[in-house]
Each structure stands twice: as structure tokens, then as C-alpha cells.
Write a structure and sequence with these properties.
Helix content is about 85%, strand content about 10%. The chain is mainly alpha-helical and about 110 residues long. The chain has one domain: Helix Hairpins (Orthogonal Bundle), CATH 1.10.287.370.
Length: about 110
């Protein structure tokens, strides 16, 4: 019984850690998506020359290719966000179930 509790507690900690990393990744992707959205809006609303950062150097860029590149990056982030959301939806119930089982084992022990 004690070994079962220890194993379940360890599994719970691992899964909880995995879930936390997933939430951090989701947050980072959401921030990137918001930055790209703002960049695309700014690109549409401003006239004149546009520039692209490459490392620490800024180069003049073609507005259309820059817009296309940002849109592609946005699509990639959206796909990754959907994947993370699916993982989160799968992991959260497992984590909740494991927590209940662990509490039940500890309470009956």
C-alpha cells in the first residue's frame, strides 16, 4: 500500500510538472501570437519603408514579403497552440483523477 502511494505520488509530480511546462509553453505561444498580430496591424496601418531585424542588424524589407512571413509564422503558432490545447485537455482530467486517487489512498491509509 505504501509503495503504491509513493509510486502514485511520484507519477502525480511528474505529470504535474509536465502540465506546468505545457502551460508555460502555451503562454509563450500566446505572447508570440499577440506580438505578430500587432506587427501585422502596424504593417497594414503605416506607410513608408519597413525593416526586418536579423540578429542585431536591421535591414530594409519588402512590405509584402514581410507580411507574408509574419502570416506564416502566425499560422505555425496557431497550429502549435491547438496542439498544446489538445495536450492540456487530455492531461488535465488525468491529473485531476490521479489527485483524487492519491487523496483517497492517503485518506484511507
Amino acid at each position: 500500500m505504501e509503495n503504491e502511494v509513493e509510486k502514485l505520488a511520484l507519477d502525480f509530480q511528474r505529470m504535474q510538472s509536465q502540465y506546468q511546462m505545457l502551460l508555460v509553453q502555451k503562454n509563450q505561444l500566446q505572447l508570440q501570437a499577440e506580438e505578430i498580430k500587432l506587427a501585422l496591424e502596424e504593417l497594414k496601418s503605416t506607410k513608408g519603408k519597413v525593416y526586418r531585424n536579423v540578429g542585431t542588424i536591421m535591414f530594409e524589407a519588402d512590405r509584402e514579403s514581410l507580411s507574408k512571413d509574419l502570416a506564416e509564422r502566425q499560422e505555425n503558432i496557431d497550429v502549435r497552440l491547438k496542439s498544446v490545447a489538445q495536450q492540456e485537455a487530455r492531461l488535465k482530467p488525468q491529473l485531476d483523477d490521479m489527485k483524487k486517487r492519491l487523496e483517497s489512498l492517503i485518506g484511507s491509509g
